[in-house]
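Pasting two entries for a bug report.
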Amino acid sequence: MSSETSGTPLVQIKDLSIAFGGIKAVDKASVDLHPGEVVAILGHNGAGKSTLIKVLSGAYKRDEGQIFVNGEEADINNPRDAKKYGIETIYQTLAVADNVDAAANLYLGREILTNYGTLDDAAMESQARKVMGRLNPNFQRFKEPVSKLSGGQRQSVAIARAILFNARILIMDEPTAALGPQETDQVSDLIQQLKQEGIGIFLISHDIHDVFDLADRVAVMKNGQMVGYAKTEDVTKDEVLGMIIMGKCPAGATPGPGAMQES
């Protein structure tokens, strides 16, 4: 199908469809993701990529199709179900609490308490230092409110929160939007670190340069359907743009049902 990678995929989405008011936003879309791999899902606004990902994250319920996690069919009806399967979404807005520090953000809603029922700040900071040490060893600003951190540092707090609770599958929505070059490099380093840990990442991005820097494979959508799949090393940026704009599948890609048929 969409991958030449061997072994059981972390996630396999098969023939997924969802309609709103009789209009199919996603039409029989299939894509898979393997451990330690970044797959970019591309397409114009309205192509169906965000809707597809929202089904995986539990925000929308699918009408048809199946989702497999580690080879077993997954029943995902809401975000809590998705978390249970180790699926976490990091939205562009990051959803971090600006007025508290990194440790408090990591444990937001899942705080560690002492035997007396008070917040165990020391335990939370200790765990925060451990997980941030894995991800971003240069991060030292544990005592400051998150509002004082740079975009790249805020991104690492959001990612640390996801992996602290054993996420194996990350959905990253425009992770480098509005970041400067240095912060973009920071996020790139974070993604490399996550890949080494065997975490799989679905990347939603409009930035084609970003995609070629970060992703192992691309899956291109148009009008709710998959145009095709390719390893980034097998296609050029122009060819991927041709897939996005015209639905034209180049020689280095595997066509999907949405590919333009040669007349």
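Entry 2 (this is the one that rendered wrong in the viewer):
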Amino acid sequence: MQPYRQALKAEALATTRFETPPGRKLQIDFGERLVEIGEAKIKAFVFVATLGHSRRLHVRAFRGEKQEHWFAGLESAFTTFGGVPEEVLMDNPRALVVRHDAVSRSVQFNDKLIAFAKHWGFQPRACAPYRARTKGKTESGVGYVKKNAIAGRCFASWEAFEAHLAKWEREVANVRTHGTTGEAPIARFERDEAHRLKPLGGRASFGMLRELTRIVGNDCAVEIDTNSYSVPWRLIGERVAVTVAAGEVRIRHGVREVAVHRQSEGRRLRIVDPAHLDGVAGRGGAVRRAEIAGPSVPTSAAPDSLLRPLADYEAAIGGSF
């Protein structure tokens, strides 16, 4: 059985190496490490971003691995590199990926990540489940940071730890001769990759997101900061989730996104998508039922003879109330 076991092992480990074009991809990951800070062992979460072509590294230390830390690490990398790549490749962290089917490879990213990616102009990508080595450049980068930058060192404070990582990144990691490329990452970056990244364009930080809950009103809208934003009329009375971020208002009913609007900078305004009101009385007649009853049911408005004044009903019951 030994030859068969060896074949299975080789099949599981086999990986095709390929070179990433300049500016195409950034790989990101977190690693955990106990760090001696002020004579106490503290768990540090180290964010590592690696450009696929040049292998230039960016490192940040955080006290957690929440979504806000992923975003802060990415924004720090974009600022340091002076631009944004076309794609960002990650594992499947719960803070960023809602679901990733291993068979169909369909991925559902977190709504906040989608808004963040749109704000900065990159395409998020997720590794195949249980195959994190598809982003091996960062996997090896995390190990390199742990062993070379942190192991065997102690720091007087958290600020001193952060300053050490910044200096190590600048004076060691990005000027060494890389084992695969045979060049210093910073030299390869400046020659081939810096001009291939998308310019930052003066974009501000993504900032804090707001998540709200609203009930859809009879006017087919939800109110946010005194402004009303339209929602499909069939959701009147339903509870919806609202995410306000990066200048957009995204509205979800359950897991389905039902409306997206640009966030208004004014006050007491009504922002309407006409498609949300199709079939509502006052817009071409009474509510149409063709979608429910089937195509054989006529969709024309009621004839004028059926639209009687209230006085006729008062007369029929013998007078007003």
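Dev reply: Rendering is fixed now. As a check, the viewer should reflect this: The chain has two domains: 13-196, 210-278.
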